[in-house]
Amino acid sequence: MKAAVMVKPGKIELIELPIPKMEEDEVLIKVKNVGICTWERRFYAGAYTDFPFIGGHEICGIVEKVGPKVSQKLEVGDKVVIAALKRCGECYYCRRGYDNQCEYSDALEQRIPGYYGPAGFAEYMVVRGYEVYKIPEEVSCEIATLAEPLACVTHSIDVANPEIGDYAVVLGAGIMGILHMFLAKQRGVTVIVSEPNAERREKALKLGADYVVDPMNESLVDKVYEITDGRGVELVFYTAGGRKAIDDGINSLAIRGKMVIYGSTSKEDLITLDPKIFHYREIVLTGVTKHTKESFRKAAEIISTQKLPLGELITAKYPFTEINNAFVKAEDLSMYRVVVEF
Q1: For residue 259, what are the β-bridge partners?
Q2: H-state helical runs in 7-164
């Protein structure tokens, strides 16, 4: 099979590799479409150094072969999405049900010997039965690549546990911010999106945001208190924006409000908090990472219903042979998700 190997920052080579050997509890997948995530883009930019690297974890494909010990009903030709995150099932966190925090998931991530990464950027991949989720044939493979990011956002929404009538601020209107907006609105939440880029603010309004704020030219906190009659919002989701966005989010919370740190941060984003805000206002500051088996199940169901306008978030497609160009295009701020097509 052909695989796209990132040999160093900014350089991907297409090479021939043997199709990985299947175990009896595994499934062989013929890959059809893969989304380019921010995580893979960081490797391309040189933020990480685990080379050679085979990325690709937002995957839609077709079942090619099913191992005899795979318990779910899968047949050759089924269209599926892949939760490309191995779990050991036996560590303390897996046993507690926190399978996204598996102590050994990183060590298990070398799907192809000698190469780090989930290995979705290849013509075939071998995955455990529990990583495979069937979707209807009529769902397009390019849209189905959003199952993995949608699963991560579903985990974030589940942790926040919004209620009908709540107000929420979503910090950032990139693809993860928009997905948060979609799922929060499904729960009956009024959503305020904070985003400095004018085009992304317009896109958020088009896709259902109730309010948008330009945090560079107006006070998010003042706007929130104006919209909520001085109360503040019950929920804040941080997807991007750094320290200022985090500070604004915390200061926008109502009494007993909850803020979820979803997006990644850097050393420059360190914040200082007066513990009195927890004592007197009873707010919750928490975070999420990755997806759980349950949140992926929910995401696959959401994808299958085709009720969300997810096609609006697929903004470019490239053939597999042009994967370098796809990575360059993915850096464009007008892009939400760039998809590689086999």
Answers
A1: 236, 285
A2: 38-45, 92-96, 141-144, 147-160
Angle between helices 323-330 and 38-45 (to 10 degrees): 100
Helical ranges in the chain per DSSP H: 38-45, 92-96, 141-144, 147-160, 175-186, 198-206, 220-227, 242-251, 276-281, 293-305, 323-330
Amino acid identity, position 155: H
Residue bearing the bigger pLDDT, 110 or 30: 30
Q: What is the CA radius of gyration of the chain?
A: 20
- 235 burial class (0-12, 13-18, 19+ CB within 10 angstroms)? buried
CA-based nearest residue to 296, from 123, 85, 122? 85
- What percent of the chain shows pLDDT beyond 90? 94
Closest among 50, 25, 29, 40 to 106, alpha carbons compared: 50
**Residues in CB range of 217: below 8 A, 6 or more apart:** none
- Which tokens hold the place of 211? 């309010």
Spatial separation of the C-alpha atoms in residues 115 and 177, rounded to whole Å: 32
What are the tokens at 217?
A: 């030219």
The predicted-structure confidence for 112-161, as pLDDT tens digits, reads as follows 989 999 999 999 999 999 999 999 999 999 999 999 999 999 999 999 99
pLDDT in tens, 172-201: 999 999 999 999 999 999 999 999 999 999
Using a 10 angstrom Cβ sphere, with 0-12 exposed, 13-18 middle and 19 or more buried, the burial of residue 205 is: middle
Mean pLDDT over 87-107 rounds to 90
Domains of the chain from N-terminus onward: 2-139+306-341 (3.90.180.10), 151-287 (3.40.50.720)
pTM reported for the whole predicted model? 0.96
Q: Which candidate, 209, 224, 19, 211, places its Cα nearest to that of 113? A: 19
- Please tell me the total number of residues recorded for the chain in this structure: 342
Are residues 121 and 59 in contact, defined by beta-carbon separation less than 8 angstroms? no
pLDDT of residue 108: 60
